[in-house]
Amino acid sequence: MLVFKKITTILFLFVCTGITLFAQQETTLPALTWVPQAGYTDVTIMPDQYKTSVSLPLIGSFQLYYFNSAFTYNNLVKNNTIDPNLVIPKLKTMNHLYSGGSYDIFSMRFKTEKTYYQVSIRDVWTQRFDYTKDLMNLVWNGNAPYAGKTADLNGVRVGANYYRELALAATKPVNDKLTVGVRGKFLMGMANVTTKESQSNLYTAPDGMSVSGQSEFTLLTSGVAGSESFNASNFLGLKNLGLAADLGARYKLSEKLSIACNVNNIGFIHWKGQVKNYRVNGDYTSTGYLMRDSADVMDADWQNVLDTLEAVFKPKEDSKAYTSWLSPTIYISGNYSIKENTIVYASFATDIYHAIRPAFTVGAVQQIGKTLQATVNYSIMADNYFNIGGGFVVRGGPAQFYLTCDNLVGLFDPYSVKYFNARLGLNFLFGKVDTSN
């Protein structure tokens, strides 16, 4: 039973982390071209306000995001009590719960004669949980509703990453119309959970007294449930190394109109440190039942659930090294300059994790001298159709402060939204760009 308890603990950890964190594509940040960190999403941006920017640990950039396709916190909790049956009947066949963030350890961007370079070190973490309605109903209400039926567990996945990224980017105009950018990344992985195969179901006999399952399920982990003693190489991710790249191009159709395409996070990490993998493959049967004999989460008979599921699926454990791939992100955007300091834009953004869940954004940017740049936008996302975003960057002397949020309602009432993504930071700028050439 110890093996299955480890799997359940990992699943529970990332579900709870997703609920408590405040969501991967950013719809507002790319519009604020003065912000050096906008280059993380659009490597073709060439700001004309400064030659050099420097960001220091934590204060340079701190981002948190959250996405729940199925429900809000307020849907789940009533009178300070968690009641999953308030949301389970409204779940779709497949549901998604994502969260994560990043922060800069150090970043510097500088301009040579014709090229912008950016050197950065930052930590990135993501958690993803794809789950079926039947899984939530089974875990919470037991298998009584499935007497003589099969619970669909196909496609249940957990994906989580925590890694450090050392990157070097270069952005350069090829000619008067075309600008290209590339960022190479050296990755050091610190923790990972990857679901490889995920095809499972659970059948309950008509009398409810026996259950059987068919499953091909593999859960790979590193730095989560390992037994190795702590050491510096594990902490720094030196045992788990990888490479990635961001690629981008921008083309000017006219003096007022340009289009850009960026494909980010094309890469992998090879995990060798503190690896524990769990594999299920075959058909299984067990006498017993899944029963939750309390409406209270803490007092429910979870031990019976764990015992029965382990008896059915019998997971096996190994410590083989494995490779996980990052989730690529695609940005396609178009900018139109209405007048010198006013730009309107539209964009398509999506990250790819076993499916494509796009976001469509329209917005406008206004600049006031060399002091203030601000934007407001509207986004339509998968399972979430009303998102008003906005952000600003303000400069005073060498200091530049910025704040972006893809759903402004979440700043004031985070418990009422399905999606939230915010980033803020402080950069220091030096040198004036000569735009006379």
From TrEMBL:
Signal peptide: 1-23
Domain DUF5723, chain residue ranges per copy: 49-406
Keywords associated with the record: Signal
Stated name of the protein: DUF5723 domain-containing protein
Organism, as annotated: Cytophaga hutchinsonii (strain ATCC 33406 / DSM 1761 / CIP 103989 / NBRC 15051 / NCIMB 9469 / D465)
Pfam families to which the protein is assigned, alphabetical: DUF5723
